[in-house]
Amino acid sequence: MKTCAIVILNYNGEEVLKTFLPSVVQFSTHDIWVIDNASTDGSLVFLEQTFPQISLIRLQANFGYAGGYNWGLESIKGEYEFLILLNSDVEVTSGWDAGLVGFLEGNPDYAAVQPKILSWKERGVFDYAGAGGGFLDALGYPYCRGRLWNHLEKDLGQYDDTIVVDWASGACLAIRGKDFFAMEGFDAHFFAHMEEIDLCWRLRKAGRKIGYLGAVPVFHQGGATLDRASPQKLYLNIRNSLSMLYKNEPGYRFMWIFMAKGFLEALGALGFLLSGKRENAQAIMKGYADFWRRKSLIQKQKKEPVREIPRSGPVNFLLGNVWLLGVRRFSDL
């Protein structure tokens, strides 16, 4: 069995690959693969002509982030001990893959780990997706060191440590192959967004730790597929967050959370309407409607006779801190 495969998912990302793939080729020590979600642009021609050393897995349709990785990784199942799932819009740094793999090799109780993720556009600022390590509050709202809601911190070395987190970012996720396949990968029903948080939650319920390695920095462009302000992204986040909670929380807790989130997000929808952002309000309502419509298709997480790794974040109610108390930095929680 080989040590590690670096696996990049691509869909019509020719220009993104031209910008970011050179750093991956330059600084990586392990095999590089690209899974292509049936691109119709010049991505494949560019890869074949410019980087023939990169292995290609061609899918017959666009299965999104979750399905694309699930189907693509089946092609190399059992060949590699570790997998690094890397967004196509990430610039890596010297020793990045060796650092992540070395951490997992030295910590067998960890299933996955993410690096420090900084903004590619503003290099001294943390990135939205994962930043300095991710957590969940009691209502399932994700937040990060270095990023609370939409407020991003400057990188001053404050998160150069190594800690246990609740979830690792799918922008750059190093994971043991056996753990990924034991969980049957991502939930393909999610299509995109929140699927890595759901996977990490399931891993924690199985007694496996998730880590953050601040000694390894990477730079993420973000928004290459969907802009953070996109109504479609808002819809996917709402729908998939409810699905994740339904799968992983006991029934009585889920109903309490469902009602609490419903009230808060109805207020959010009203705020969008009053500010003229009708499409955003509709995205919230559509997220709830589509979750409820497909609830019977969602497979509840089975209880296993293991000790669950509990949430490790400092707060239970993120919105109370951000909206009511005006907290903008993780250290102020």
TrEMBL record:
InterPro entries: Glyco_trans_2-like, Nucleotide-diphossugar_trans. Residues 6-114 form the Glycosyltransferase 2-like domain. It comes from the Bacteria. The chain crosses the membrane at residues 254-276. Keywords: Glycosyltransferase, Membrane, Transferase, Transmembrane, Transmembrane helix. SUPFAM superfamilies: Nucleotide-diphospho-sugar transferases. Pfam families: Glycos_transf_2. Coiled coil: none annotated. One of its GO terms (molecular function) is glycosyltransferase activity. PANTHER family: GALACTOFURANOSYLTRANSFERASE GLFT2 (PTHR43179:SF12), RHAMNOSYLTRANSFERASE WBBL (PTHR43179). Belongs to the glycosyltransferase 2 family. This is Glycosyltransferase 2-like domain-containing protein.
